[in-house]
Design goal:
This protein is an all-alpha fold. About 75% of the residues lie in helices and about 0% in strands.
Length: about 180
């Protein structure tokens, strides 16, 4: 059984995790269990319950620091998977767009926007990386095929994946449950 101090800390941690787009009851249960064990150890040393909770929480660290640590761990793993996915999607879209029989710029622009938007929804912490990963390939291919100053204008294509990635982040923020 955990006390009011531990429960208050867990609620605070939940709010901090949600700010970082981490919604996971298992993390909260793990922290609750660690704190309960720490409180019990403090109680066995003769501390009163409130002091034991206060000491256990102080040793565990602030909710903001703990949440940042969990979010950073998750973010590292997620970003290692999403960046290659962004590059693969961008290369696929650039390949289709470069075909001689393909003549539909609107569909290419929409595909860039949707691909980056999905990645922004999944990984909201680095939308700029997803936008560049998806969108850089069409301008790069244009610059390789015709290395002239005029092809730098193709960088305007990046507007679509950037818009999509940041729209994905906005949707993620809108659908992420608020802290209780």
């Amino acid at each position: 059984m955990t006390g009011a101090g531990v429960e208050s800390y867990v609620r605070q941690l939940d709010g901090e995790l949600r700010k970082r787009f981490v919604v996971d009851a298992a993390i909260l249960e793990e922290v609750r269990a660690h704190l309960a064990d720490a409180v019990e150890r403090e109680r066995q040393q003769g501390r009163p319950a409130e002091d034991a909770e206060r000491e256990a929480i102080a040793r565990f660290g602030s909710a903001a620091v703990v949440a940042a640590s969990y979010a950073a761990d998750r973010s590292r793993v997620l970003h290692r998977a999403l960046l290659p996915a962004a590059a693969a999607l961008g290369l696929l879209i650039a390949y289709v767009d470069s075909r001689p029989s393909w003549d539909d710029t609107g569909i290419s622009a929409g595909a860039l926007m949707i691909a980056a938007g999905i990645l922004g929804l999944i990984g909201p912490r680095r939308p700029w990386a997803w936008a560049l990963g998806v969108g850089i390939w069409i301008p790069a291919l244009a610059m390789v095929r015709s290395p002239a100053p005029g092809t730098l204008g193709m960088l305007l294509v990046l507007v679509f994946p950037f818009a999509g990635a940041y729209l994905g982040v906005a949707v993620r923020r809108a659908i992420t449950p608020a802290s209780p």
